Amino acid sequence: LKTPLKQTATSQLVLTERQPDCQPLTTPPKLKETPPADPWTPTSNLKMLISAASPEIRSREQRRQLSDSSNEVLQTKHCSQEDLLGDEYEKSQPSRKEKSLGLLCHKFLARYPDYPSPSQKSYICLDEVTEELHVERRRIYDIVNVLESLHMVSRLARNRYVWHGRHNLPQTLQALKKVGEENKYIQQIQMIKKREYEHEFDPDSERNEEMASSFGSSDQSEMSFVELPGVEFHAASVNGRKYKSLRVMSQKFVMLFLVSTPQIVSLEVAAKILIGEDQLEDLDKSKFKTKIRRLYDIANVLSSLKLIKKVHVTEERGRKPAFKWTGPEVLPNTQDTKLEATSTTSSPPVSESIPSKEQCSKALFPSKGKQNFTRHSSLIKLVKSIENDRRKIQSAPTSPVKISASTYQSLPVFPNTIAQFPAITKHQLEGQSKAAEEMQMKCALSSPEAVPKPEPSQQPGLSQPLGVCPASHSSMSPVILPHPQSGVSYAICLHPSQAHTVTTYSPGFMLQPLPCANLTGIKSNNSKVLNKITTEERDTQKGPDEPTKSLAAEERPETKSETSSQRCLKRSQALPENNLIKRHKSDEESLDSSLTFFPSGYLIPLTHCTHGNKAECSNKEKAGVCSLQHTTYSSPITGVVPMPASELKTVNIPAFHITPLNIMVSPNSIAAAPVLSNSCLNSSSTSSAPNPSSSALNFMLQHIGLLPAGVQVAANPVLQHVPVSSQSENISHSSGSTNVQEGKVIEFTFYSSINESIFLFSLQPSAPKEPQEPQTVTENFFRTPGGPNTEPSLSANSDGTQRTSQEALYIPQRKLEVSED
DNA sequence: ACGTCCCGCCAGGGG
DNA sequence: CCCCTGGCGGGACGT
């Protein structure tokens, strides 16, 4: 033992003198005394050591120490307490948690401003930090390393770092996302998932890993640290060697989030990917374990940064730890921000290797800038208002903003907002609307009363393919609400305004709802079959947590004026069938018709087909298509690719043609059909069962009144044999589940005997409530049709051709829940 | 029993 | 050569 000596020395002295029988070292059990955030005393180490002793000794020690040490009131207090209740004492001792890296990180971060004034750089002296925080140096390295990976700090020299705060975060994330895309993490994730399933099926086949591993190895980006222009890695020396593991790992970890559509990454998957990348998958158990351990470290600090949070993914196999991205939305921005990736290996700079979506976008929209906004009037307003703010901010006398490298044009003040706005254009145009969606949500937040009401005006957007319903499709997010009593989980799609976090989910089974149908209370009552879903969990709110703070304030009310979803609505409203809703209503016992509701979402399992991924876009000539096809909404985890917004406006499906109804179904889902049946057969339980999608869809349509009761549609040709006659065959029941609180939310559910899932639909009152963190989220899991032939080869495709191939064909198979901790 | 992850040994390498 | 860095994994703690 060397390093620790200097600190330990004194304590050891004290310790020994009082406690000869002290044992060597194991993880020192808790120590005494509540650790006030800051008031660490020089004796803290001593305390630690003491704590190693038995409780009695410890307490005795405590008392003694108390008497002679003029330490602090806290201790005194402590002791007195302890005199009374020995147990209580135990509790007050810092538990393991209180020494967690996460907490430490918090302390660390508390020392520096999130957005330090660019003028005055704050430096970090490890020695100081170490001392003040009373931690081993080693721990600080962990923190600093991941901060470094995010360019929140950069190393100057030994023992010395500069604090950048979150200024660079947007750029960093952007860069990471880009690299992540280039690394084809999506595919890798899918691959891993798939392998998992295959294992389930025949556990014997251990060796067919090579496939994946080979593909993994083909990945040329090994150990590269993504840098930003302004924040080069100093100490080239350090940079040059292997001492980057944690940093790189951290970056990659983040990349996984940014690239995934449900921005959830399980540790397991992350670890596998991180391992698989360098080593060709030597399924080394210990290595895996170690990786996981590291990931926990990283995750802890990322959590402290509020970039991610822990959740649990529950699937049939059990509960797996995972993390969910809670950081800022990342925009595939094109800003001329060039990133460079320095690599330790022989890999070339990643940045220029692949002309990605960026180029595609550029090609598509050569005139980057506001013009892009012209497509969406609401966006224009938004932009203007933002720009306004921006100007104000910049011209503010107090903020002579001047960023060193000048590489970053983004405003230091409200990076989030600003960062988002360029995104909107592209995102939207690319069929991604997350940003916009988020905006919407924020708006809703800032002014809850102002409810986006459907208003029948004419739709300019109709003529414009991309502008029509940008956000709507993604606005439906499935959430699973575990039902305490029944043990069943319910899937629910929430309106974005209801659940911010879920909005990023792009359900594999998606159906374009009528976003803002103005319904009057709808309720069904066969509640016997279905348990009523209580959404009590909603109240486990995160409260004033994240989004509210700076965001709401900056948002402009105008934005909400015309949401794309409303437009969609208009279309749908124009349809005669629409009043079927009312008919339906009469069928069911009406309830509380005074309230105005709009469907918050539907959840319908539709099969989807993954089409070309970003990676496939690598070819320049495909640029245009590429951006349209961008699969931002694809779920790497599930392998599902919801349709891009560009496809939303029309429904042109052979077997399922309901265009006028504004039901949006990805054309791709049809392509999936053939294979679908295949996988159906392969799959265990659902083998001969008809595809739930169509029946579910039918049900839904009818239920909602989009489809005449008698009519049935088949979601896909292959499944047409599905008993159309009575939906009850597959969809056993629907029921109205009452809504709990304040009767403001009406939910109804239906049960699909096919996949044994219960879907819950809810109609939310117009006035959006405070967005709630969903407890759980469902997501379909898809399995590829087994067989080596159908095995999607993720590696190939060098030609950059669009591959709307089998790899996309999955079958909804299982449920996955993500739950908060 | 398992998920988390603290703790600190010790190898590398910079100064 | 000292000591900063940081990979790494045992095993403690929490549930």
From TrEMBL:
Alphabetized UniProt keyword annotations: Activator, Cell cycle, DNA-binding, Nucleus, Repressor, Transcription, Transcription regulation
Protein name (record): Transcription factor E2F8
Coiled coil ranges: none
Family: Belongs to the E2F/DP family.
Comp. bias (Polar residues): 1-14, 67-78, 790-807
Domain E2F/DP family winged-helix DNA-binding: 96-165, 241-327
Subcellular location: Nucleus
Name of the gene this protein is made from: E2f8
